[in-house]
Amino acid sequence: MAVTMNDVARAAGVSLKTVSNVINDYEFIRPATKQRVLDAIEELGYETNLTARSLRSGKTSMLGLVLADLSVPYYAELASDIMKAAWARGYRVLVEQSGNEADHEKSALQGQFRSLTDGLLFIPLSLDAGQIIQAAGKKPLVLLGEFVQDPRLDMVLIQNLEAAAAVTAHLLAGGRRRIAVLGARDGDTTGSNGLRLSGYKAALAAAAVEYDPTLVIDCEWRRDGGADAIARLLDSGVGFDAVFGLNDVVALGALHELLVRGKRVPDEIAVAGFDDIDEARFASPSLTTVEPGRAEIAERAVELLINRIEGKGSADKVEQPEAEFSLRVRQSAP
C-alpha cells in the first residue's frame, strides 16, 4: 500500500497541515519540527505527488531545454552544463530533441512539454523569430544559438565573429596563407556559419590576405561532412595549408581524412576547430579550437530564465549577454 501524508503525519507526531507545509517549503516552521517530518518521509519512503503540487502552486520547478540532437557532442555537453546550473538553483531540466524540424520545435513551444515546465531554454534551427514569438505564449523563454537573433527575445550569445577571427589570426600568425573553411557557403552572413565565416574574412583582411571563395567548402556539421569536404578539396587540386572547421566534429572529420591521405598535420596542413568538445583534447594530434564559454552560457541562460520565472529584474528589458571565449592552442595548429 502506498504511503500517504497521513502516515507521515502520524509517524512525525504532527498535523497533516504541518506535513504539507514542509513539503511545500513553507518558511515559518520550527527547524526541529521540519526535521522530524523529513525524517519520517525518508523512513517511510513517502513520494510527493509533483503533479498535484504543481496544480496547487502553479510551479513545477522544471526547466525545458529544446535542442536539435543530443548525439551532437556540443549540445550534449551544453545540456550537461545547463542541468548542473539548474540543479544548483533548485530546478531540474526536461530535454526535448527537435530533430531540426519546425513542427517539433513548435510543439515544444506550445504543447504538453511546455506545460510541464516553468520556462524554456530553446535552440531553434527551423522557426524564425516571428514564429517563435507567436507560438511561445506567456511562459518565460530564453534562446541559445545564433540562428535567430531578434531584439524582442532574451538570448545568450556566443562571440562567433570575434572567436572565428581569433582562430584565423592564429593560423595566419603561424605562417598559413591558404586556409580552407569547412561548413559554410560563400556569401553566408547569418547564423553560426555566416558569423564565423565573417570572422574568418575579417582576419584575412586585417592581415592583407586575399579572400578566395574556392577555399570555402559547404558540408554538414558532422564528422563525415568534414571528411567528405576535405576529400573533395584534395581531389579538386586547390592548394591549402590550413583547415578551419566551423565546429569541432567537422574539424575532426577533416583531420581523420588528412591523415588517411598521408598528409602530415600540422607540418603540411594545420587544423583548427570551434567548440572545444571533450574529444578535441584526446584527438591525435590534439585539436586547436575555440572554447566558446560553454559553462558561462549555461550559467547565464539558466540564471536569466529563472529570474524571469521568479519575477526578478526588469520584465520590460530584453537581455542578450555574450559569453567570453578563449583559444585552446594544441598540437594540430601550434
Automatic annotation (TrEMBL):
Originating organism: Paenarthrobacter aromaticivorans
Domain named HTH lacI-type: residues: 3-57
InterPro entries: HTH_LacI (IPR000843), LacI/GalR-like_sensor (IPR046335)
Region (Disordered), start-end ranges: 313-334
The name this protein goes by in its record: LacI family transcriptional regulator
UniProtKB keywords: DNA-binding, Transcription, Transcription regulation
Annotated signal sequence range: none
Pfam families linked: LacI, Peripla_BP_3
Domain of life: Bacteria
